[in-house]
Amino acid sequence: MTRKVPVFIDGEFKQSATEQWIDVTNPATQEVIAQAPVTTLAEMQEAVASAKKAFLTWKETPVSERARVMLRYQALLKEHHDEIAEILAGETGKTFDDAKGDVWRGIEVVEHAANIPSLLMGETVENVARGIDSYSYTQPLGVCAGITPFNFPAMIPLWMFPLAIACGNTFILKPSEQDPLTPTRLAELFVEAGAPKGVLQVIHGGKEQVDFLLDEPAVRAISFVGSVPVGQYIYRRGTENMKRVQAFAGAKNHCVIMPDANKSQVISNLVGASVGAAGQRCMAISVAVFVGAAREWIPEIAAELAKVKPGGWNDKGAAFGPLISPQAKQRVEQFISQGEKEGAELLVDGRNCEVEGFPDGNWVGPTMFGKVTTDMEIYKNEIFGPVLCTTEVNSLEEAIALVNANPYGNGTSIFTASGAAARKYQHEVEVGQVGINIPIPVPLPFFSFTGWKGSFFGDLHAYGKQGVRFYSETKTITARWFESDIADASGPNMTIHLQ
Question: Which regions span the lipid bilayer (predicted)?
C-alpha cells in the first residue's frame, strides 16, 4: 500500500481528510513511493489557529529555553544524518553524498539558531538627553510561513523554521509536493527535540495552499525559495496583503576564468559546479566566461565534463542523479535543442542519456556549449539542468560588463592568481555573493544568503543577522526616572552582619 504523507497540525501527525492526493515518485525509476495530501481549507485554518495559540506562550518562553530546543534538535539531526539523507535521496534522486551535503548545510543553520540569545540582543545608550536613557528590544512577529522547493528538501526548510521559531515565532511550513518525506522527518525530530505543541505546523499541496498562506491575515511573514515567476507572484501577492516577504528566485551564475588561474583547479571546480546536483540548484555555475588566452582550455574542460556520469543514489561512481521529473527532463532537452538551433557549438551532448539498471529515470548527461552569445535563449534562461554555457571575452572589464548586464545576481566567481584582479572583480561586480577561486560561494549561516537583482525579491535575506531581523521587530524604549521619586531609605535596618 502506498504511503500516505501526514499533515502535522496542532502537535499531531495525522492523515488528511482530503480526497485529493499527489503522487511522489522516485526520479530514477518513476515508482510512486508516497502520496502527499492536498490539505483542506479546514485543516489549514486549524493549523493557523494552533500557531496563533502557541505563539501566545512561546513568545514568553525564555530565550535560553528556545536555544536549548535548537541544541537538542541539532544533536538529533546529526544522529539521524545518514537516515535523513537516504530518505532525501530516494525522493529527489540525489546521490548519497549530495544528499548528505543537503542535510549538513541545514544542520549548520540550526547550530546558528542555537546562538539566538546573542543574536536577539538589543542596543542601549545612556543619557541620550539629561537623565534620559534609550534602549531597544528584539521581539517576535507572530505566525510566519515558509514555502520551499524540491531541490533542497532538508536545507531550505532548515533555513527557515528553526531561526523563525528560535526568535519566538510560530511557523507553518508548506514544502514541495514533489519530495515531502524529508520535511516530514525533520518535523518528527523537531518534536523529539522538545518543540512545544503548535510551534510548528506542516501542510502540503499546491497553489491553493500557497494562496491561503499569502492571504491569511494571521500570517505575518512569508519565506520562499523557487523559480522567478513564482517568486515574483509570491512577493507581489504577499506584500499586497501587507506581509513581510523574502522571495529567493532564479539565477544565471557566471564563473570568470582569467588566463593566470590555476588550470587544474579551474577544470575540476567548473565541472563539479556546473553539473553537480544535476544542475538543479540556484547557485550552480551555468556560464563560464573565459578571458583572453584562458579560452584555450575549453576543449580540455569539455573532455573532462564528458567523463562525468550520472547514476543511482547509492552508486559511488555517480557524479549526480536524475532530474526531478519527466517534465524537467523534457524542458532541459528542449533548451539543448534550442541552443543548437541558435548556433551555439554543442561540445558535449547530454541528451539520450542512459543509466544501466534505470531505464525509466529522468536522465540528462553533462552538456556543454561553446560560442554562446547573450542573445541566445540558453544564455537568457535558467536551464536548471547539467548544462554549461561558455563564452569568451578579451579583458576583465568586458567580463564584468557582461555579468553586470545579466538580470540575475545570485552568485558569481572568479578564478585568478592576481589579488588586484580579484579585488577589482569583487568590488565592481553587481552580484550578491562572490567567490574567489571558489565556484559556489554559499555563505555559512553566520553571514546571510544575499542574492541581488532578479534573484531576490524583498529587503532582508535568509539566515545570519538579516534572517533574525526578518523574523523579528525592534522595539525602542526611551525612559526617564526622577530622582525626587526615590523612596526615603529610613526604616528597618536590613543590613546583613557577617559573623
Answer: none
Per DSSP bridges, beta strands 387-393 and 367-370 are parallel
Provide the CATH number for the domain around residue 88: 3.40.605.10
Interacting residues of 131 by C-beta distance below 8 A, sequence separation 6+? 480, 481, 482, 483
Whether residue 246 is found in the same domain as residue 268: no
Please give the mean pLDDT across all residues of the chain: 96
Under 8 Å CB-to-CB from 168, ≥6 apart: which residues? 58, 59, 61, 63, 66, 139, 140, 472
The whole-number pLDDT of residue 19 equals: 97
Q: Is the pLDDT of residue 499 over 70?
A: no
Active site residues: 282
- How do residues 36-83 score in pLDDT, each as one tens digit? 999 999 999 999 999 999 999 999 999 999 999 999 999 999 999 999
Question: Does pTM top 0.70 for this prediction?
Answer: yes
Residue with cell string 570568470: 256
Please indicate, yes or no, if residue 50 is contained in any of the structural domains: yes
What is the number of structural domains in the chain? 2
Other C-beta atoms lying within 10 Å of the C-beta of residue 122: 13
Q: Take residue 98 and report the three cell numbers written for it.
A: 549530495
Structural domain includes residue 47: yes
- pLDDT of amino acid 497: 58
Residue range of the domain that includes 204: 3-250+451-479
The phi-psi region of residue 337 (left if phi > 0; otherwise alpha if psi is between -120 and 50; otherwise beta) is alpha
Write down the pLDDT at residue 322.
98
